[in-house]
Specification:
Elements: H1 7-58, E1 66-69, E2 72-81, E3 84-91, E4 94-100
Antiparallel strand pairs: 1-2, 2-3, 3-4
Length: about 110
Amino acid sequence: MFDQKGYILLESLLAFLIITLCISIYLPLTANLLVAIKKEKIDVDIMRIAYEQSQKIALDQEIDSTWQTGENSYGINLSETNERKGIHVQYNNQEKKVDILSITATSP
């Protein structure tokens, strides 16, 4: 007969090692995904604000100067050059520009 003392200890240490490796791979991956989701959410918010403000321009309404969404505050500016109107939405160091070529329909 073989002496099997310490077999349970070895087996539990191996299981602990496997669980630790899985967690050490999973946690950084999850943290990186959360950071990426937060950045994408800000981009989506900026584009949504620009779209809503362009709709206000199309309806001849005044655009907002600031926009508050949750904890984020965005600045909104209107730019007009010749026949083009544009909306500039700023958040921290990020700025998105949306140009509107025409807001009137032409009839053939």
